Amino acid sequence: MDKLGESLEQLFTLCGRKFSIKCVCLIALQLISRIQELHNHGWLHRDVKPDNFLIGDGPKSGTAGSQIYMIDFGLGKRWIENSSHISFKTEKRLIGLLKTNKKKGTPRYASINTHSGYEQSRRDDLESLGYMLVYFVRGSLPWQGLKGDKEKKYQKIGDIKKKTELNKLCKGFPDEFRQYLASCRELAFTAQPAYDEYKQYFKNVLKHLGYDPDNPQDNVFDWQDETKLHVLGGMTLPNLNGLVANGVNGVSVTLHTANHANTNHNGSSHMLLQQIQSMDNKNNNHTVHNNNRTNIKI
């Protein structure tokens, strides 16, 4: 595994807490692919948020800055067991079961079904991504900044989310964002998401803006454009060497990087596959060494 750089939340702040439509579409294309890869291996993430996606380590203007990685599988869960989809359940609490009070995701980006207490499936990771993309375009979400204790605040977030029409939530930017969220919300619990169709929504937006999504020269993110960086007085972004990415059921993956490793276009998917394999590995004392000179202690 590679040493990683800043999170999307940190980059969002670096760019003045608003990304361009082009940048958000480029993010969407990569993250839909990351989520699809995770789902293809039978896992749900269940905590999709800007802090859990990082770019590679190295100059932002280079390849490292254009690759986005998924981290933190601490709330991950298998959606398929014994070749069958997990069962639909109700009365699941967003902040956990009464006895364990174990966290079940971030309320700001949680799907409506999660707020309603339904068991999560693939549709919920994708709906959470939709709210994250809207957050990047708008700069905030209507249900941010609510007051009250956790239970009441989470209830208010869910109520506002349910009442806010997608036309209003996505007002002022391309209709493909609304179409994406509407498609995710319409999915049945066991439905196979149309990942390629979702990616096509954002490719269409890029083409309408005059960009070719298949042309590397057009795939420049806002944090790679010096004219869009926001000057932060005295702020320094933390060094993530030694990053801990929580695994599943108490398993943790700690990255100790001895040397910076070069990132390639397949690096994000390769790293994700390694994370998935570590979640499936039941040997808690196993140590892996790879060609990137990174030790992964599970």
From TrEMBL:
Answer yes or no on keyword Transferase. yes
Give the InterPro entries listed for this entry: CK1_Ser-Thr_kinase (IPR050235), Kinase-like_dom_sf (IPR011009), Prot_kinase_dom (IPR000719)
Task: Print the keywords alphabetically.
Answer: Kinase, Transferase
Q: List the coiled-coil residues.
A: none
Return one GO MF term: protein kinase activity
Where does the sequence pass through the membrane?
Answer: none
Residue stretches making up the Protein kinase domain: 1-202
Q: What is this protein called?
A: Casein kinase I
